[in-house]
Amino acid sequence: MNDAQLIVEIQKLKKEKDVALLAHYYEDGVIQDIADYVGDSFYLSKMGQQVPNKNILLAGVVFMAESVKILNPEKTVLVPDMAAGCSLVEGAPYDKYLAWRKQYPDAICVTYINSSAEVKSISDVIITSSNAKQIVESIPKDRRILFGPDQHLGKWLSKQLNREFILWPGACQVHILFNADRLQKLTLQHPDALVIAHPECDDEILKYATVIGSTSRLLEEVEKNTKFKKFIVATETGIFHQMQKLRPDAELIQAPVVDENCMCNDCPFMKMNNLQKIHNALLTFKPEVKLDEALRLKAYASLDRMMKITSNKPVEWPASFNG
Q1: Which DSSP string corresponds to 39-106?
Q2: How far apart are CA 132 and CA 62, in angstroms?
Q3: What pLDDT is stored for residue 50 in this prediction?
Q4: Contacts (Cβ under 8 Å, ≥6 apart) of 277
Q5: Strands, DSSP E only, in 149-213?
Q6: Correct CATH for 3-85+271-291 of 3.10.180.10, 3.20.20.20, 3.40.50.10800, 3.50.50.60
Q7: Is the separation of the CB atoms in 10 and 279 below 8 Å?
Q8: H/E element, 134
Q9: Is residue 176 pLDDT above 80, yes or no?
Q10: How large is the greatest C-alpha to C-alpha distance in the chain, in angstroms?
Q11: Among residues 42, 126, 193, 322, which is most buried (max CB within 10 A)?
């Protein structure tokens, strides 16, 4: 089948099988356009709880689908490709993260949603780039903070909130490829452009950015800041699809990477998904995300704290880590 035929079949199967298709901003535009809901990782986590459908197909990476499953054990959660991982997940293996966690038993462990279910199970609270400030601000000032696995997001948050973090040394393989020297030259070539960046970028990139924020925050800036018609964007290229739809008059320029011969701003894991895989998942109901219930319950505690804090509900913090 060609793409047009696949799209027709996908829409038909979604209705027949009561499936909500959720897609991340970093997916290809054709996938975003057929999704029922498109957003960042926090939005997708919320929508997983809110959709009435019994089944969810998440076009993103596996840790996102795991989060939806943790929060919604009664729902069947599918992914197009179970190999769609994440460099941050791979860079924070459970055994090493646990050993690090045990070194600071009195600290609050704040873990980025870009992590495995196992790592979430030994964390106190999960954050996303869109809700991180609110969550960290809710932690008592007398508690030390462990932050992982993205060190660059942690450094940026630490400066923003004037709080010291103990950082795990992880990084996103896409966001660390941007090159500061080439970005500086690009800003000189386009003095009328606004530089916007994701906080997973290195400090050397962030110092050129006027606006730093999550994918949803960057999208909002492009949509609403009509003073600018040109934006230099330092994040994964999938977000350009929604930006261009909201601001067809705007010129979007990719921030440059180290290799001058490569615009390597694509996440290889996000781009593993395609229409054929989505169609196959709907036909076969595979691959399905399944989690051991004991693991799910442990991981649920940290995700539930995220949901409660962002809904302005009270939470209790553990006195120490007993894992």
Answers
A1: E-HHHHHHHHHH---SEEEEES-HHHHHHHHHH-TTSEEE-S-TT---HHHHTS-HHHHHHHHHH-TT
A2: 21
A3: 96
A4: 80, 81
A5: 165-167, 194-197, 211-212
A6: 3.40.50.10800
A7: yes
A8: helix 132-137
A9: yes
A10: 60
A11: 126
CATH of 88-171+296-310, one of 3.40.50.10800, 3.30.1360.120, 3.20.20.370, 3.40.50.720: 3.40.50.10800
Tokens of 317: 């913090």
At residue 263, the pLDDT reads 63
Mean pLDDT of 135-157: 98
**Two structure tokens written together for 179:** 């090159």
Nearest C-alpha neighbor of 209 from the set 178, 238, 241, 239 = 178
In angstroms, the Cα distances linking 280 to 20, 30, 318 are 15, 16, 43
Three-state SS at 230: strand
pTM, two decimals, is: 0.96
Question: Which tens digit of pLDDT belongs to each residue from 192-240?
Answer: 999 999 999 999 999 999 999 999 999 999 999 999 999 999 999 999 9
